[in-house]
Every structure is written in structure tokens, then in C-alpha cells.
């Protein structure tokens, strides 16, 4: 059973519907409140499945804030606050303090105060973030035919960082080589250890995009949320940083494969009819950048004219 199976079961068996503007199926639920819209999202993380063993408690704390707030950014909304519930195994006080300081750092980074939560005993570290945001123009998933598909900054680094960990775990590299790779590719490792939610970028994009989502489960999977698409590998290559190209060449990995399957990048994937304006607004507003990688089309899901199969990270039970 996959995550999609679970969600379908929920949708088919929950019969009560409220008066939300947008319910299950997008990055956030959306409620009309006066002249504005309240966006609400929740994200749950477990120590064994969501946090690589090289993350410090401080980085874990930052990560739960970043991952949760990223869904607010995907709606092009402004964060209002976050609630974090903690399931805690037996941990040292120092671990807990570092974790909390990481949460606090993340809250300051995104101007998103911690406003509540819950604590309980658990077999493994479990963190659940619920973030609230506000906007007068919520942006949903799903592009319109003819819109260009763009993404912020770059993709591929998280895939490469995890590949370094996989090579270590498979015994393909020594401990010394592992640490050397970490030092050789600092930006690749940083994208895994300390990702960024694109809140500023989302707010700047609000008036210029037709749809938006964040890249959490991999670019390939998120593309399917847009709808039907035609992607160009030549254009996508421009959004792949040089260190990823170098790493992929060194370890015989297709950089396009790395870019399409790199999850938890937290970049924004969006559609627009105003590419030049988007590039200008991001550059002037936050020294940001965005790359056009394809178009929304009438039917099909294509990479260079070849049918692309749904992929990305899928939870399984």
C-alpha cells in the first residue's frame, strides 16, 4: 500500500465536508477569513526515515520548520506561526536543547513564531509541524495549457548528497573518502543538511504565477501535480549546478536523472506566462533566480518527446 492508496481511502471514506476553499490535495488547506485567506499545512517526520544520521539535533530542529513552512511558501503566502508536536524517546538534555535551538533558529529565519504544540513519549524521535499562513491571493497546483514551467535556483544537490551516504552505507567508499567527499562538495552537503524554504521568493511570485508547488518528493513527481507537460533536458541542465554536473560525471550518474529524482530540495516549481517578469522580480527582490524548463501541454508527460513515467519518493507500508 502506498501513500496515494492511503489518501484515496481517506477521501473515499470521509463524508463530512466543511466550507474550506481548498481541502485535501494541495500543499495547504485554504480558508476564507474576511478579505484574506488562511493557509494551513501539517508535516510529520520520524528520526528513522526523515533525518539522515549525519544531521545534528540543531539541524533536525531547523529542518522540521523548513519543511513545514515550505508548504506555505508553495501557496505564495506569508507565514503566521507554527505549532510543533514532539514525540520524544529518552534523550539527553543537551540533545533537546540543541533541537529546540534549531527550531528557534528556523522560526527566526522565516519570521514564523512557534505558537504551540504538544509533547509525549515515543519510541523514536517524532516531530509534527503545523504551519499557518496568510495571503490575499492563494496559488494552487495545476497549470494551464501554454504556461511556461519554471523552478527557482537549482536542483540535484540533495540527490548527490544522499548518493554519498548510500555509497558509504553500501561499503563502496571508506570513511576517509566519505569525509573527503563531504569537504570536496560543501554546497551539495549543505543543501541536504540545511535546506531553505523559499518564502521570500513565493511572496514575490504571488502576482505572476498561475500555479505553484514545492519540490519535496522530487522534481519528477511534482511535475505531475502541474498537469500535462513537455520538459526539455537542455533547459533543465541550466538549472543543474556545476558541482552536481561534476559529481555525476565522476560517479557515472546521469545529471538529468539526479535532477528529476532529487527530493526535499524545497525549491518552488511554478507555471507562468510572464517568464521575463518573474526573472526580473526575483533578481530585484531577493537576488534570486529561476529557470524555464518546459511548458504545460494539452496531453501527456514528456521529456524531450519521450513519455515520462511518474516517479519520486513514495511512502510504502
TrEMBL record:
InterPro entries: PurM-like_C_sf, PurM-like_N, PurM-like_N_sf, ThiL-like. Keywords: ATP-binding, Kinase, Magnesium, Metal-binding, Nucleotide-binding, Thiamine biosynthesis, Transferase. Residues 25-134 form the PurM-like N-terminal domain. GO terms for molecular function: ATP binding; magnesium ion binding; thiamine-phosphate kinase activity. Mg(2+) 4 binds at residues 27, 41, 71. Its EC number is 2.7.4.16. It is an enzyme of class 2 (transferase). Pfam families: AIRS (PF00586). Pathway: Cofactor biosynthesis; thiamine diphosphate biosynthesis; thiamine diphosphate from thiamine phosphate: step 1/1. GO terms for biological process: thiamine biosynthetic process; thiamine diphosphate biosynthetic process. Mg(2+) 1 binds at residues 42-43, 118. The keyword Endoplasmic reticulum does not apply. It catalyses: thiamine phosphate + ATP = thiamine diphosphate + ADP. Mg(2+) 2 binds at residues 43, 71. The keyword Transmembrane does not apply. Mg(2+) 5 binds at residue 217. Belongs to the thiamine-monophosphate kinase family. NCBIfam families: thiL (TIGR01379). Reaction mechanism of ThiL seems to utilize a direct, inline transfer of the gamma-phosphate of ATP to TMP rather than a phosphorylated enzyme intermediate. This is Thiamine-monophosphate kinase. The lineage of its organism: Archaea, Methanobacteriati, Methanobacteriota, Methanomada group, Methanococci. The gene is thiL.
Amino acid at each position: 500500500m502506498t501513500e496515494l492508496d492511503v489518501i484515496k481511502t481517506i477521501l473515499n471514506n470521509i463524508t463530512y465536508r466543511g466550507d474550506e476553499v481548498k481541502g485535501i490535495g494541495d500543499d495547504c488547506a485554504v480558508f476564507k477569513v474576511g478579505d484574506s485567506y488562511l493557509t494551513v499545512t501539517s508535516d510529520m517526520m520520524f528520526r528513522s526515515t526523515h533525518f539522515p544520521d549525519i544531521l545534528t539535533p540543531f539541524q533536525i530542529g531547523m529542518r522540521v520548520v523548513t519543511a513545514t513552512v515550505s508548504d506555505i511558501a508553495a501557496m505564495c503566502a506569508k507565514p503566521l506561526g507554527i505549532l510543533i508536536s514532539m514525540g520524544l524517546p529518552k534523550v539527553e538534555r543537551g540533545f533537546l536543547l540543541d533541537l529546540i535551538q534549531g527550531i528557534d533558529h528556523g522560526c527566526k529565519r522565516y519570521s514564523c513564531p512557534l505558537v504551540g504544540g504538544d509533547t509525549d513519549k515515543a519510541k523514536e524521535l517524532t516531530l509534527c509541524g503545523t504551519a499557518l499562513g496568510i495571503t490575499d491571493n492563494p496559488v494552487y497546483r495545476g497549470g494551464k495549457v501554454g504556461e511556461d514551467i519554471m523552478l527557482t535556483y537549482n536542483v540535484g544537490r540533495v540527490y548527490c548528497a544522499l548518493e554519498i551516504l548510500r555509497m558509504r552505507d553500501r561499503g563502496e567508499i571508506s570513511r576517509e573518502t566519505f569525509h573527503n567527499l563531504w569537504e570536496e562538495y560543501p554546497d551539495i552537503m549543505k543543501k541536504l543538511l540545511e535546506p531553505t524554504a523559499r518564502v521570500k521568493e513565493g511572496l514575490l511570485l504571488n502576482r505572476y504565477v498561475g500555479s505553484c508547488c514545492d519540490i519535496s518528493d522530487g522534481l519528477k513527481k511534482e511535475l505531475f501535480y502541474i498537469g500535462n507537460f513537455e520538459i526539455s533536458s537542455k533547459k533543465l541542465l541550466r538549472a543543474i549546478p556545476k558541482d552536481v554536473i561534476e559529481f555525476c560525471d565522476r560517479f557515472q550518474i546521469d545529471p538529468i536523472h539526479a535532477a528529476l529524482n532529487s527530493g526535499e530540495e524545497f525549491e518552488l516549481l511554478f507555471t507562468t506566462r510572464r517568464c521575463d517578469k518573474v526573472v526580473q522580480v526575483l533578481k530585484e527582490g531577493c537576488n534570486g533566480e529561476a529557470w524555464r524548463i518546459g511548458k504545460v501541454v494539452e496531453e501527456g508527460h514528456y521529456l524531450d518527446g519521450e513519455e515520462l513515467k511518474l516517479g519520486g519518493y513514495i511512502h510504502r507500508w
